[in-house]
Amino acid sequence: MGGDFAPRNVVEGALACARDSRCDFAIVLTGREDALRAHLPARVPENIRLHHTDDIVDMHDSIAVALKARKNSSMHVSLQMQKEGTAHASISAGNTGAYMALSTLILGRLPGIERPTIGTFIPSQSGPVLLIDAGANVDSKPSHLLQFGVMGSIYTELMLDRERPRVGLLNVGEEEGKGNDATIAAWQLLKQAPVNFIGNVEGRDILKGTLDVAVCDGFTGNIILKFAESFPGLLKSKFLQFASRSAVHKLWVGLIAGTFKRMIRDWDYQTYGGVPLLGVQGVSIIGHGSSTPKAFTNMMFRAKEMVDRRVNDTIRETFSALNTNT
Amino acid sequence: MGGDFAPRNVVEGALACARDSRCDFAIVLTGREDALRAHLPARVPENIRLHHTDDIVDMHDSIAVALKARKNSSMHVSLQMQKEGTAHASISAGNTGAYMALSTLILGRLPGIERPTIGTFIPSQSGPVLLIDAGANVDSKPSHLLQFGVMGSIYTELMLDRERPRVGLLNVGEEEGKGNDATIAAWQLLKQAPVNFIGNVEGRDILKGTLDVAVCDGFTGNIILKFAESFPGLLKSKFLQFASRSAVHKLWVGLIAGTFKRMIRDWDYQTYGGVPLLGVQGVSIIGHGSSTPKAFTNMMFRAKEMVDRRVNDTIRETFSALNTNT
């Protein structure tokens, strides 16, 4: 029931997923049954089930309200199903703050993880780079940054089939000893961590793609992510400005706009389809409020892959080994 | 003597400036006289003077070394001339850390300013937006953020002729109470400051240009600035990738590349020509290591403008009024 175009986009995305030949799983739609049915055909595909809930977490609900007063909300029930073992993953494009808090509180944290984190892929010159934390936490201690790096490395390795992902600490200079108190201490921790740590990296290294995982606090990560997302808008405005100068300019833009769009297609965040909340005992995928049906379909396949590729088991095993060693 | 192409680019930039009809000031080149003369004509223009210094601050010199052991360096002498009143502004593209520290220590801070700051313009959909602090400080207290906002507002108003610049606090959400401890406290301070405070802004607002001054700590600012500077490189790689697909693709790119370059011309950081260190008792302009002669010319005109438009006097008067009121 969450997102700007709910429940239409969610239901349409689920239908497309259910009808895809690669879909080897069942989709449970939690929400108001009548609202969901309005977007479904009379004969619902076999691999789509409806689970009626009569409440909804509102975009303006506080975390306390979402947790205590909305126990029969679509969001709450979906996570509860995971907790009880009747579902393997949850997806929501609703109130992000509430969804992250509910995921953490209902599913619980994985052993060794202090703060669950959001990892998001940013397109670079040589494929996607994982930015982690992209906004789940506003203040991050050195131990949090270490955990972001280890989880980000595991996620990138398993989901993108990249061997020994290069993990960099986002900083204001490349040399050891650069940065604020948190990054200086985190550098030491990451150096000894079971990841391919390449040291400090700078803002320019993300788009250059000279690394696979960029570790940062969630404050910086959130600002970079939103800054990056606004780049296509800037380009579009440049095209429009240029086109407005004369009929000839307009013709030019008409000719090149399509080509250009194809060139920057990987800047379309819909293809990535949501971001995972890493560090919880389950799979919790956070969708953008404006997610299209296609984005929802991608999120469903992404969630299944996270289960199949044993992301959480690997995180658990890695942190268990870390704690035994220290 | 500083920068990747020193002293050639500095000297060529000075020559172009001196020969420009708008140049109503004198340029003093500090450095090794023989090295400077190698790039000057036999007859040096009247408004260029040479001031021989036999030492240089190296890119790898620590701040302590730059300050104590390099007293006869081109950087040190240039700032010393300002301190003594024989120069009105200094420009350097050398060791940035050393130059900022020397500027602060030799020139001194303006009354009421705890931390000098770098303000840099980022091109947006509707003209340049000042990002402040762009990297002078790694940890910023709420009072520092307040001072960045006030200085940034004055600088933007006087240098870009913008009335009542909109000052936003860069944050992870728009509502009051969002953010980390520093931004939550800074919000309260900025609300009462003598600026047109529009509240919290997000990463996407910078390129949208819905504000004039984006206030942030220097850690976040430095990472955003370097991230932004790497956009043109990403676009270039997209063009090259596209061109490599076939002869037809290559032809297309050949046809549109020039047009496209003109469209994003304001992403050329050379046109802005360096960034000021605000909050010191003088004018200290920091150039990029790779500054072209054109960038140096622009820095010289920019420095003159900062003197003419009374940026420092206005900062002094504003903080003096602030301190009287509290």
Write the layout of secondary structure elements.
Two copies of one chain form a homodimer.
Chain A: H1 8-19, E1 27-31, H2 33-37, E2 48-52, H3 63-68, H4 74-84, E3 90-92, H5 96-107, E4 117-124, E5 127-132, H6 142-160, E6 166-170, H7 181-191, E7 196-201, H8 203-208, E8 213-215, H9 218-229, H10 231-243, H11 247-263, E9 275-278, E10 284-286, H12 293-308, H13 311-325
Helix pairs in contact in A: 1-12, 4-5, 6-7, 6-13, 10-11
What's this, in brief?
By secondary structure, chain A is α/β, with parallel strands linked by helices. In chain A, 48% of the residues lie in helices and 15% in strands. In chain A, β1 (27-31), α2 and β2 form a beta-alpha-beta unit.
Describe the overall structure.
The structure is a homodimer of 326-residue chains. Chain A has 326 residues and is of the alpha/beta class. Chain A has 13 helices and ten strands. Chain A has helices at residues 8-19, 33-37, 63-68, 74-84, 96-107, 142-160, 181-191, 203-208, 218-229, 231-243, 247-263, 293-308, 311-325; strands at residues 27-31, 48-52, 90-92, 117-124, 127-132, 166-170, 196-201, 213-215, 275-278, 284-286. Chain A has an eight-stranded mixed β-sheet with strand order 3-10-9-4-5-8-6-7, sandwiched between helices. The first copy, chain A, has a two-stranded parallel ribbon with strand order 1-2. In chain A, α4 (74-84) runs parallel beside α5 (96-107). The first copy, chain A, starts with 7 loop residues before the first helix and ends with a helix. The mean pLDDT of chain A is 91. The interface between A and B is large, with 49 and 49 residues.
